[in-house]
Amino acid sequence: MQRAIGEMTIECIKGDITDQGDIEVIVNAANQQLKGGGGVDGAIHRAAGPQLVEASRALAPISAGQGVITPAFDLPNDWVVHCAGPVYSDDPDVPPQLAACYRTAIELAEDKAAASIAFPAISAGIYGYPLSEAATIAMETVGEAARSVISLRRARFVLFSDEAHDAFAEALSILT
Ligand code: ADP
Fold first, then answer.
1. 99/91 Cα distance (integer angstroms)
2. Where in the sequence is the signal peptide annotated (predicted)?
3. In this predicted complex, what is the ipTM?
4. How much is the pLDDT for 73?
5. Which of 63, 48, 47, 49 minimizes the C-alpha distance to 98?
6. Measuring from atom 18 of ligand 1, which residue has the nearest CA?
7. Whose Cα sits closest to atom 13 in ligand 1?
8. Which of 15, 29, 96, 150 measures 20 to 30 Å from 23, CA to CA?
9. What domains are defined for the chain?
């Protein structure tokens, strides 16, 4: 599933974010301590090798909604943006924090003049965000940014399950 929005092609695929060799910047759903963890964070750290934890911990801690960028080391990409997604709750700060993750990742990728970025479903695993709500925020934020990017031309959402893929593809299909 892909659509041309603004300056970018936005696409949704089912897959593993550590396996996106044609993408310059991948985004990690990290924790605030940037010390590695489970889920997509664990997969990224395993694939990048031990230098990633040293590089990212030096930049910690960060708050929910913030992000930092490191080299990708043994991953087949150039950079990794580590975003701390919010833990899902009914706190009104939570949706803007999730949106800030996507915006920050795009800004950091643009600072590196990257043309391509890949995202996982930030906060939609251990952090408990309902998939359809997480997908709507992700697509609306990336879709909005797509209208004013300088270097980025491709944003790929890499979803790990059929359920996640379908939620993100649906959100992409109704983006106006
Ligand atoms: P969070 O703590 O932000 O919720 P998780 O890593 O628990 O982060 O989950 C975020 C999403 O990433 C979930 O939908 C999960 O299924 C997915 N995920 C886990 N491993 C991978 C992977 N290797 N590539 C892409 N997505 C993944």
1. 14
2. none
3. 0.98
4. 98
5. 63
6. 40
7. 125
8. 96
9. 2-173 (3.40.220.10)
CA distances from 175 to 82, 102, 143, 167 (A): 26, 16, 7, 13
Distance between CA 148 and CA 64 in Å, rounded?
24
pTM score over 0.90: yes
Mean of per-residue pLDDT scores for the chain: 98
Which of the following is catalytic: 22, 41, 91, 162?
41
Is 41 an annotated catalytic residue? yes
Around ligand 1, the residues with Cβ closer than 6 Å are: 16-18, 29, 39-41, 43, 85, 120-127, 158, 160-161, 164
Q: Sheet harboring 2-5: ordered strands across?
A: 2-5, 8-14, 154-159, 116-119, 25-30, 79-84, 67-71
Tokens describing residue 156: 């790929």
Closest CA relative to residue 122, chosen from 154, 153, 168, 78: 168
Cis peptide before 61 (omega within 30 of 0): yes
For residue 169, give the nearest of 9, 8, 10 by alpha carbon. Answer: 10
The rounded distance, in Å, linking the Cα atoms of 124 and 133 is 9
The closest residue, in CA terms, to atom 6 on ligand 1 is 39
Query: Which residue ranges in the chain fall short of pLDDT 70?
Result: none
| CA dist., res. 43 & res. 116, Å (int) | 20
